[in-house]
């Protein structure tokens, strides 16, 4: 291979040399028409050792340029995304010890701090804008539940690319406002996410514009995979467990890809156990998994999953009712020894209050669903004593201001000072912990 990277058809192994070629074939293999490709690099894998060294001073995701599908650094579009801090949250460790007698190290990837839109989708937005710029593309179509749409709208605007965004009718109003504020076009579709994708695809076809691929789109996958490298750089090793709120699955697939790219360097022997949570009002993968597990994973279990049309949910950001990639996600989770399970969406507000009290951080509902994954996993006995756990916390409260308003709980309307009892913040502690005890 002479080029820096190639896109390799997962079915027939045909090699595509550039994104120009990939886009000119409508993001399909020119040989067999398959739409899933893997990005392969000619980069020396050991280069990663240098990039994750303690002395490295990354400024953005593009610190990992050698492992990203971009040829010329001049095309980088960035806002310093992808270097979100990874913190240990002691209040969660104390809880695991107190209630379950487990000594865990619990790390949180703080994507709420991501500079552009405050979500882990900024990484995909930045890489997509850079690659599209390099490929000379001036228009693009995005279908998303909200966060990808907001990130793409932001970065494509920076690159001067017209972005037509399609979101389902129940997308959070803050995402809608952000996208539109950037002067990108927002089409709000009267239908669910699956229908939204269909309409977006029709629009893309009608006007001959490229559109976001699915959860395995190299633009998103290659960006998100850098989390594993950041984990290695900051913590120095891969944790035993990886927790994330699951929608379509780009995050977990990206972890797998990241490991593949540095296989043989001795840095990662095996993937962490994936414990993936889904909101209970739209949990098709959790339901499919539960059934398969109960039936002891019979032959072809991974092809059996429900499709929920028009799910009514409290966390639309992660509501994928038609999980087309479950046949790949199920086996991947099984390979890691992990689980897919549901969490109560109603618990999101209590979790956001707890985090805001203990850490003085405002999180969005999809992040709460990720942290709910920890509480639920503790309840279900999914941890072993002494394990390290990383929660990929996807978003800050800026993505869902209406949710943040719901988390307010100390407001009192008064007429005079006679209505005001003296306030003691410490006295609130028992109240915020009550739902978890
Ligand atoms: C904040 C947040 N968390 C989790 C997810 C789920 O991402 P995926 O299942 O694609 O990895 C999303 C995706 O929309 C998100 O925005
Ligand atoms: Zn092919």
How does this model look, in words?
The chain is 37% helix and 14% strand. With 437 residues, the chain is of the alpha/beta class. It has a domain at 86-117 and 219-406: Rossmann fold (3-Layer(aba) Sandwich), CATH 3.40.50. The protein has a six-stranded mixed beta sheet. Helix 5 (147-158) links the parallel strand 6 and strand 7 (162-168). The chain is globular. The termini are far apart. The model has no long low-confidence stretch (mean pLDDT 96). The structure holds pyridoxal-5'-phosphate and zinc ion. Zinc ion (ZN) binds at residues 9, 11-12, 14, 29, 31-32, 34.
Please summarize what this structure is.
With 437 residues, this protein is of the alpha/beta class. It has helices at residues 19-24, 47-51, 90-100, 122-134, 147-158, 173-181, 193-207, 218-224, 226-234, 250-261, 284-294, 326-336, 348-359, 365-380, 401-407, 429-433, and strands at 5-9, 15-16, 37-41, 86-88, 105-110, 139-143, 162-168, 185-189, 241-245, 273-279, 339-343, 388-393.
């Amino acid at each position: 291979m002479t080029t820096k990277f190639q896109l390799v058809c997962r079915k027939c192994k045909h090699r595509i040399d550039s994104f120009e070629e990939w886009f000119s074939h409508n993001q399909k293999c020119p040989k067999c028409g398959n739409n899933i490709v893997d990005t392969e690099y000619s980069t020396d894998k050991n280069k990663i050792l240098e990039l994750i060294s303690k002395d490295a001073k990354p400024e953005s995701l593009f610190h990992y340029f050698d492992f990203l599908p971009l040829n010329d650094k001049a095309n980088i579009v960035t806002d310093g995304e992808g270097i979100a801090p990874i913190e240990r949250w002691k209040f969660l460790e104390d809880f695991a010890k107190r209630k379950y007698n487990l000594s865990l190290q619990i790390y949180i990837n703080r994507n709420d701090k991501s500079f552009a839109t405050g979500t882990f989708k900024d990484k995909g937005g930045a890489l997509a804008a850079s690659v599209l710029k390099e490929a000379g593309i001036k228009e693009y179509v995005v279908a998303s539940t909200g966060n990808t749409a907001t990130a793409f709208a932001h970065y494509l605007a920076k690159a001067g690319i017209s972005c037509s965004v399609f979101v389902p009718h129940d997308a959070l109003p803050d995402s809608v406002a952000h996208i539109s504020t950037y002067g990108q076009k927002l089409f709000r579709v009267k239908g669910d996410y699956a229908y939204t994708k269909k309409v977006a695809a029709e629009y893309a076809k009608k006007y001959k514009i490229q559109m976001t691929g699915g959860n395995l789109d190299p633009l998103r996958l290659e960006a998100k995979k850098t989390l594993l490298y950041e984990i290695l750089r900051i913590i120095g090793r891969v944790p035993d467990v990886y927790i994330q709120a699951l929608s379509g699955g780009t995050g977990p697939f990206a972890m797998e890809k990241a490991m593949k790219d540095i296989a043989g360097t001795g840095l990662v022997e095996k993937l962490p156990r994936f414990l993936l949570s889904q909101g209970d009002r739209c949990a098709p993968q959790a339901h499919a998994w539960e059934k398969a597990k109960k039936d002891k994973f019979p032959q072809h279990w991974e092809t059996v999953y429900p499709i929920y049309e028009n799910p009514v949910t409290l966390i639309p950001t992660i509501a994928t009712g038609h999980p087309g990639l479950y046949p790949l996600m199920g086996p991947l989770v099984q390979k890691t020894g992990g689980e897919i399970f549901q969490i109560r969406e109603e618990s999101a507000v209590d979790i956001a209050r707890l985090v805001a009290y203990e850490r003085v951080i405002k999180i969005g509902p999809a992040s709460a669903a990720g942290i709910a994954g920890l509480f639920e996993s503790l309840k279900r006995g999914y941890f072993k004593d002494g394990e390290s756990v990383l929660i990929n916390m996807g978003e800050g409260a800026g993505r869902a201001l209406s949710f943040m308003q719901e988390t307010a709980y100390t407001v009192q309307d008064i007429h005079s000072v006679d209505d005001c009892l003296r306030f003691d913040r410490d006295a609130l502690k028992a109240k915020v912990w009550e739902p978890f005890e």
